[in-house]
Structure formats: structure tokens, C-alpha cells
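Practice problem 4.
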């Protein structure tokens, strides 16, 4: 692979910017400073350094983010801060985007990536990727037989949902804690389901997307890269795994 393409893929800038970097003699391949942008390297074998820092070849970035309340899930917004503000230090920041959406007041698991293909598939309704939420809802939910919704979903005012599952964690006359798993990413889906059942959502946090669980060590507003295993498992869900 060409050296300038390699560095550009890694987020070191456009081809033009990377060429400049190389011309400035800031790039070393193994033991040699290279000043020819069209030089070829073997991404698997060669060790490339920029400003004496080794860089590793990675085609895409994948992050797990614990979204705090108060941030919009978008790359830009004129009125509210966006989740992307947390990623400004990441070299490929401009190429990153969130997969799916959480409401401004919803917390928890978001995947942030620059992999358009994975993003598109995980969010596409056809794949019916499970999303699990921890919710605190108003009132005691013990009056509800949730099992029937596992078969047929629920008819909302203008929309028939897909089947969903609810596990009750605790109840009291004032509020209940539940885990609810839905297979769609429709706008306000959990809030609308629980509202229709007479138990409006008071607090909502996403804890799982498909086979990816929110890391309990990740505090609100923190992110970490997904492990190779986690990336592989997510890709497997949507038929993108190569090996
Ligand atoms: N369902 C909702 O109502 N809100 C979210 O943020 C996610 C799912």
C-alpha cells in the first residue's frame, strides 16, 4: 500500500496533508526516514512512525460510549451539545458518527464509528438488532402480562411495534424498574410503548446492542475502543465478518 494512502486511512489527514507530512521528513518506516509519498509499505510487517510515534494500521475506528443525559445524538446541532463533543481529541474525529439514536435525556450505550457499512447494517430494521434498556417507569407494573407482547408487539396510535420483551426488576406503588428489549430503533419507541401501557418512562438507559453490553467500568461521558472480539461479534450479527 502507498505510504500516503496508509497514513490518510489512519486519519492523519487528506492525501495532500499527508504528503506534506512526509515531505517534512516526519515519517519513518522501520529504520528509514521516507520522503517519497508514493513509497510502498506492507501494513502487516512494516512499522511506521509519525513524529517518532509508532502508528498501527487500522482501517476503521469503533468506540463504545456511555452517553450522559443532555446531549443530542447527532454530529451537529445548532441548539444543543452533541455526543460528538466527547470525541474531538480522536484523530479521525471528523469521520466519526453515532450508530442509531438515543434521546437527549436517554443515557447509556452508543457505538461511535467511521465504519459506514457496519453502521448502516446495525441500524437497518431488516436485521432486527436487539436493543436492551434499563428503565424506571411510573407506577406498579405487576398488573401487566408482558408475555403477550413477546408474540405480537403492541399497537400504538399510528404504529404496530415488533415483539418486545420485558423483565421486571422491582416494583413499588410509585415506580418500577424494568429491562425492556426491543428490536427496532423507531423514534421514542420505549417511551411510547410504556406510555401506551400506562407507565410513562421516568429514566432510560441503554445497556445492550445485539451482543455488545455496556461496559460497567465506563462512567457517563467516557468512551473506549471496542476490542477486536467485540468488533468481530458485532460484524457477525450482520453478516460482515470476513474470517
Ligand atoms: N426509546 C426511547 O424512547 N428513547 C430512546 O432514547 C431510545 C429508545
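Answer key:
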Amino acid at each position: 500500500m502507498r505510504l500516503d494512502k496508509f497514513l490518510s486511512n489512519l486519519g492523519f489527514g487528506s492525501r495532500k496533508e499527508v504528503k506534506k507530512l512526509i515531505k517534512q521528513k516526519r515519517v519513518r518506516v522501520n529504520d528509514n526516514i521516507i520522503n517519497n509519498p508514493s513509497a510502498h509499505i506492507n501494513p502487516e510487517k512494516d512499522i511506521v512512525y509519525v513524529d517518532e510515534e509508532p502508528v498501527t494500521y487500522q482501517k476503521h475506528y469503533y468506540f463504545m460510549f456511555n452517553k450522559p443525559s443532555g446531549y443530542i445524538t447527532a454530529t451537529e446541532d445548532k441548539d444543543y451539545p452533541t455526543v460528538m463533543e466527547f470525541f474531538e481529541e480522536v484523530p479521525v474525529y471528523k469521520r466519526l458518527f453515532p450508530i442509531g439514536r438515543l434521546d437527549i435525556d436517554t443515557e447509556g450505550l452508543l457505538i461511535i464509528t467511521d465504519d459506514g457499512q457496519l453502521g448502516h447494517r446495525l441500524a437497518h430494521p431488516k436485521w432486527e438488532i436487539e436493543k436492551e434498556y434499563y428503565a424506571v417507569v411510573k407506577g406498579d407494573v405487576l398488573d401487566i402480562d408482558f408475555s403477550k407482547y413477546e408474540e405480537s408487539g403492541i399497537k400504538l396510535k399510528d404504529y404496530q411495534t415488533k415483539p418486545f420483551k420485558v423483565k421486571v426488576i422491582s416494583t413499588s406503588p410509585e415506580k418500577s424498574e424494568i429491562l425492556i428489549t426491543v428490536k427496532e430503533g423507531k423514534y421514542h419507541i420505549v417511551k411510547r410503548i410504556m406510555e401506551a401501557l400506562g407507565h410513562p418512562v421516568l429514566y432510560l438507559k441503554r445497556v445492550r446492542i445485539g451482543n455488545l453490553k455496556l461496559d460497567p467500568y465506563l462512567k457517563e461521558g467516557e468512551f473506549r475502543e471496542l476490542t477486536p472480539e467485540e468488533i468481530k461479534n458485532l460484524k457477525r450479527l450482520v453478516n460482515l465478518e470476513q474470517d
